[in-house]
Amino acid sequence: MAMPRQIDKYLKDLIDDDRFAFYEQVADFAERRIAPRILGLERAHELVPQDLIKEMGELGLFGLPIGTEYDGQGGGQLELVLMGLALSYWSQSVAITPGAATSLGSKPLMLFGNEAQKREHLPDLANGRRMFVFGLSEPGRGSDAANPEVTAVRDGSHWVLRGEKCWSTNARWASHVVVHALTDPAGRRGHRSTCFIVPIDAPGVSYNEMGGKVVWRLSSTGSIAFDSVRVDDSAVLGAVNEGFKVMAMTLNGGRLFVASLAVGSTAFALDRVRAYAQEREQFDGKPIGRFQRVQDVVVDLDIALEQSLTWLLHLVRLYDENRLDREQAAKVKISISQRASELMLDAMEICGGVACLDEFGLMRHHEDLFVTRVGEGSNRALRTQIAQSLMPDIRAMLQ
């Protein structure tokens, strides 16, 4: 695309010069090193290659929110979201690789790890030498994540983990799994589970890549099973029976990152459609951009991009100031992902048959946007959470 990115215009007025320079650095890397390879990797059914993961590590993308005392970049959620915007413009499945490694992998350790755990893991996580995967979803548990089927039973000085996690992003490259497991079935809701840091090569742990996936094609999505896996108390992340708190606070930031992926897709669609509308000639050899119906879609994409970006960055600042409610994170994820999905279909209709071609790029974003609607909490389930916060009497009846 020869046209400048419209998202850059809006970002420049929303963030300071240093952070905009960082965004430009990542966007330039994505355009030079990632964009030319996406199509070939997808057609060959390959995942993000190790050389790109290494390069992203050398750029510091895996250590963005990790403190400098642990060899990280010392940034916050804003830097993570800017990375998501820059990478997802071309590929959500590339963006989610460092994205999940940080927002779902490093972040729970940063929030709840003790000093020994941080010293042991964060320097390697910051440099991409190690990668944590968040073990949350299960074959029989999706939205009801507060009641995991994976169990951890106390056996003397150890815990014994049994069960299976699925839809685990980055499983192929994981060194450890943060496992959310049931530890007190009789406990009150929200105080029944515990999180454990489990090495992927521990006896009894097995991983399989989930086949047949047609979204986030370059991203690793695995199933991880635990067959009587033994860990001691040093593996507990946070407090015993407070795993739901670890999960909820981790997903708060994760939803902001997922929203950034949807914004990146919207930005790509806007630039692709406005360029195509000025190049494609029909009816007397004139560009289709002269028709109001085409102009409506371009304008709707532009409005959605600016609105979504402004709202998202406002909430990111609240998150970095520790002032963001979980309902706010849920609402922005719901709204941006839904609007982006709807407008992507409009964009594809404007472009017609060419939009069906993988090389055109819109179909990739159309498929990937589905994940932003169900990932980090399904939009349908999150609406229930928001409604209960607005109607406390109803929430009390359901507890």
Rg (CA only): 21 Å
Q: Could you say what the CATH architecture of the largest domain is? A: Up-down Bundle
**Intertermini distance:** 53 Å
* Oligomer kind: single chain
The average pLDDT score comes to 95
- Elements, N to C (H/E): HHHHHHEEEEEEEEHEEHHHHH
Spatial strand arrangement across the major sheet: 1-4-5-8
Helix content: 40-55%
Total beta strands: 10
CATH class of the largest domain: Mainly Alpha
Could you characterize the architecture of this molecule?
- With 399 residues, the chain is α+β, with helices and mostly antiparallel strands.
- The chain folds into three domains: 6-131, Acyl-CoA dehydrogenase/oxidase, N-terminal domain (Butyryl-Coa Dehydrogenase, subunit A, domain 1, Orthogonal Bundle); 133-242, Butyryl-CoA Dehydrogenase, subunit A, domain 2 (Beta Barrel), CATH 2.40.110.10; 245-398, Up-down Bundle (Butyryl-CoA Dehydrogenase, subunit A, domain 3), CATH 1.20.140.
- It is 54% helix and 15% strand.
- It contains twelve helices and ten strands.
- A four-stranded mixed β-sheet has the order 1-4-5-8.
- α5 runs antiparallel to α7 (243-279), α7 packs parallel to α9 (326-351) and α11 (379-390) packs across α12 (392-398).
- It is globular and about 80 Å long.
